[in-house]
Amino acid sequence: MNHVSRDIFRRTIRGLALAAALAMPSVALAQSADVLRIANPVAVTSLDSFGAQSADQPTISVMQQVLEPLVIRKDGQLQPLLAASWENPDELTWRFHLNEGITFADGSPLTSADVKASLQRLIDGKGPLSGLWGAVEAIETPDDLTVDIKTNTRLGTVLSNLSMLGIAPAAALEDPNFFNAPFGTGPYRVAEFTPSQFVALERNPEYRGEPAPTARLEYRYIPEVSGRITALENNEIDVTWGLPPDQVAQVRDSQSLTVESFPTFGNYYMWYNSSREPFTDVRVRQAMWHAIDMEEIKTFLFDGTAEVAKGPIPQDIFGAAEQTPYAYDPEKARQLLAEAGYPNGFTTTMMWSSMCCTNIREFAETLISYWAAVGIQVTPQELERATWLENLLALNWDSTLAEGNTITGDADFTLARLYLSTANRMGYANPELDELLLAARAEIDQDKRAELYAEAGKIIWDDAVGIFPLDMMMHAVYRNEVTGFVPTPTGMPRFDTVSKQ
Question: Sign (positive/negative) of CA torsion 230, 233, 234, 235?
Fold first, then answer.
């Protein structure tokens, strides 16, 4: 197949994919002001937010408008939602008092039994968020509006962890078909769901607050960015997000579209496998950082879509602290390499997932060219996601480039989950860091927790456990008639405040 034929073939396939995504029989091309048409950039494969998809952003994006948590993070602070208040009767107990009069979409009242069942299902599901609750010893319900979470060690992360736990009705959780059309106490309930293709939400008639301004939300999966942009311009969808930098400038020039760009809890990171030479030597790890001009990379690859990072997690996250930057200094890089016994550099590899993130290949190739300039020859390894993940967990790699998201807005989610020696995610082990992270996790006083995470972040940064190059921005695009969109730092937009003129 020649070059021209391949281009025609690709355009044809993209066109068919877009047509299929927009051709759901019961809702095709609906343009009513009561319907918000959303194109999600990643397929929603499941609505079960308690098991394997508990940290899956597509699932959370939908379910955060259906299942509500006890507490919510808003403007950087944890605030009550389904809970009215909480206290610590002792260091191993968190007691929550629920608001009275809250009902689920089926009319049944919210009780402590629902909270217990929801948390227990998350723990038993052994998904990616279950580890946050490893210290839970018992969940008790002294009465219908009181829940006690008892732990075997002090656990200061309970509030931030609860912000990720949507509460479902206990009786419904026993139904194996519940997550085909789940409902909760939120402003919407699920009306239709076709895995990997389509989700429709409709207003929850039992919602206690003001009804959402839009009666129905429809999520369609359109994988190609160009397909989503075309659908927006043709008034076939109303909103999408997750645009790469090269598309943002193009969309900004459109007379019919609005672009919202905002910081998120997401960042790029490049880990070294510190259990493999030469990365056992901190001087080698630091040298590779000094060899990179991050400001130049931001300007040419991520202009307007990222900021040079100031720590291992973005600064808006609870527990983040600004660190001393690594200056671009090739001579210092060569000096550190020579001190470590590599005056002529060395050869190594770096892997990443082909489905990872914005400009991942161009970013990797740019890093590799900087390292080559100081004598480090890096062989690129772009892998299918499943293969990349298998190698990552088996520590079968020299270095890896990826994107992370501290979705709870709390440093513990990233720092303790990934950098404790027992996690063994990148072959790095540091007893001093372990002590800080465990103390921070156990500390109930939130100000003290923040101080401990700041110290932990400094160790991770100064020891160059990885390179933390960029904090990412999110780009949402919507038609001009859409109003009320509110940016979310998690990078998972909500639409319960959005309407169409």
Answer: positive
Instruction: In whole angstroms, give the CA distance from residue 63 to residue 49.
Output: 7
Q: What is the 3-state secondary structure (H, E, C) of 148-173?
A: EEEECCCCCCHHHHHCCCCCCCHHHH
- Quote the domain boundaries for residue 314: 265-473
Two tokens, residue 190: 């699920």
Residue-wise pLDDT tens digits, 81-100: 999 999 999 999 999 999 99
195-249: pLDDT as tens digits: 999 999 999 999 999 999 999 999 999 988 889 999 999 999 999 998 877 788 7
Q: What proportion of the chain, given as a percentage, has pLDDT over 70?
A: 94
For residue 66, is it within any domain? no
Using CA atoms, how far apart are residues 4 and 40, in angstroms rounded to an integer?
30
Tokens 């509500």 correspond to what residue?
68
Q: Which of 141, 156, 173 is a domain's end point?
A: 173
CATH number, position 240: 3.40.190.10
Specify the pLDDT at position 75. Answer: 80
Say if 246 falls within a structural domain: yes
Nearest-angstrom CA–CA distance, 415 and 455: 11
Q: With respect to residue 56, please indicate whether it lies within any of the assigned structural domains.
A: no
**Residue with token string 């690709």:** 10
Do residues 417 and 297 share a domain?
yes
User: 133 and 18 share a domain?
Assistant: no
Helix (H) or strand (E) holding 269: strand 257-272
pLDDT over threshold 90, residue 412 = yes
